[in-house]
């Protein structure tokens, strides 16, 4: 039995869809916080189990009979490390054999402005390694889906306004990461491995503006504002403070070239080239 946590989330849903195309539904379990959000999974024959990373007992019950566990990192930044530790402890107690943990691929967490936000991923990796369980670290690149989140819906009109300087990123689509993850889960031989899962191209925000110009036949500029100007603009849009701070930190990390290396692993596990950023931008902005 393969159990996927975060099964009502965006990555988890993709992984389950891809698994359903490969193995019988009675070999797939899903951890959800709210069973009402999982009716579509129950209808497909997925074994839905209710549990919360904050509640170790609920996880212990949910992980019974599970051989491989895909631990999708929590989206709740309130003590993520503690939540992940609860999941790993429960996996040990429940007799899970192998935990696959979705984390992040970056050059050096210690010199990154994103350390306060992302260090918990690496501390979770250490904890999982020390647990004695077989582990696989799925170090995902930044999702391409963060591009519209950072640039907004009307980017062709507004221009690319983001303080990332000349920083480049090896973005990967959630869809591709989910597909590769499912391929990894249904195959053997991934014990104690770290996989860097990135797109096959690196791209700057100036290049994103150039692609948008080409696709739209408009002149889309790249503006690299000072942080204070960027923060002020986001405040004017009424965005919550947490989102503003996260955007500022990610821009700083990108400017610091934290995510500018490509690896061939994603391509290998997909058996094809990862989707290009041009294809993604064309689809998401309907150009
Ligand atoms: N690489 C990147 O660029 C990037 C970008 C964003 C996020 N991430 C990380 O990757 C993870 C997966 O991405 P995503 O896009 O699928 O995120 P998402 O759509 O926000 O899904 C997060 C999932 O985590 C579940 N969750 C949150 N707190 C939980 C708890 N206390 N107990 C059990 N489950 C809990 C959520 O459950 P509910 O449905 O009940 O809320 C949801 O299913 C995120 O959680 C985050 O850690 C990576």
- Helix-strand string: EHEHEHEHEHEHHEEHEEHEHHHH
Rg over CA atoms, rounded to whole Å, is 19 Å
- Ions, cofactors and other bound molecules: NADP nicotinamide-adenine-dinucleotide phosphate
Count of individual beta strands: 11
CATH architecture of the domain at 2-140 and 174-197 and 262-271: 3-Layer(aba) Sandwich
Question: What percentage of amino acids are in beta strands?
Answer: 15-25%
**Overall pLDDT metric:** 97
Structural class: alpha/beta
What does the largest sheet look like?
7 strands, parallel
**Biggest sheet: strands side by side, in what order?**
3-2-1-4-5-6-9
- Per CATH, the class of the domain at 2-140 and 174-197 and 262-271 reads Alpha Beta
Quaternary structure of the protein: single chain
User: Under CATH, the topology of the domain at 2-140 and 174-197 and 262-271 is which?
Assistant: Rossmann fold
Report on the structure:
This protein is an alpha/beta fold. The protein has a domain at about 1-140 and about 175-195 and about 260-270: Rossmann fold (3-Layer(aba) Sandwich). Helix content is about 45%, strand content about 15%. The protein contains 13 helices and 11 strands. It has helices spanning about 10-20, 40-45, 55-60, 80-95, 115-130, 145-150, 155-160, 175-185, 205-215, 225-235, 240-255, 265-270, 275-285; strands at about 1-5, 30, 45-50, 70, 100-105, 135-140, 160, 170, 195, 205, 220-225. It has a 7-stranded parallel β-sheet, sandwiched between helices. It is globular. The protein binds NADP nicotinamide-adenine-dinucleotide phosphate. The site of NADP nicotinamide-adenine-dinucleotide phosphate has 24 residues, from helix 1 and strand 5.
């Amino acid at each position: 039995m393969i159990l996927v946590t975060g099964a009502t989330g965006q990555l988890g849903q993709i992984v389950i869809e891809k698994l359903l195309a490969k193995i019988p539904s009675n070999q797939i379990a899903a951890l959800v916080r709210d069973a009402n959000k999982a009716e579509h999974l129950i209808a497909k024959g997925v074994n839905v189990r209710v549990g919360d990373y904050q509640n170790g007992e609920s996880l212990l019950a949910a992980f019974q009979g599970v051989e491989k566990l895909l631990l999708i990192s929590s989206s709740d930044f309130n003590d993520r490390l503690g939540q992940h530790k609860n999941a790993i402890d429960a996996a040990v107690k429940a007799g899970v054999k192998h935990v696959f943990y979705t984390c992040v691929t970056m050059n050096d967490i210690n010199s990154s402005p994103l350390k306060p936000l992302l260090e918990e991923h690496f501390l979770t990796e250490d904890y999982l390694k020390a647990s004695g369980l077989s582990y696989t670290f799925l170090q995902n690149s930044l999702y391409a889906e963060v591009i519209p989140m950072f640039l907004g819906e009307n980017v062709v009109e507004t221009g690319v306004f983001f303080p990332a300087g000349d920083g480049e990123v090896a973005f990967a689509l959630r869809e591709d990461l989910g597909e590769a993850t499912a391929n990894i889960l249904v195959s053997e031989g991934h014990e104690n491995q770290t996989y860097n899962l990135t797109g096959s191209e690196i791209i700057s925000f100036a290049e994103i503006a150039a692609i948008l110009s080409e696709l739209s036949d408009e002149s889309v500029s790249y503006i690299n504002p000072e942080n204070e100007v960027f923060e002020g603009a986001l405040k004017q849009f009424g965005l919550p403070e947490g989102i503003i701070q996260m955007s500022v930190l990610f821009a700083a990390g990108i400017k610091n070239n934290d995510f500018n290396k490509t690896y061939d692993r994603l391509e290998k596990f997909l058996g094809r080239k990862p989707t290009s950023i041009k294809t993604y931008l064309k689809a998401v902005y309907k150009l």
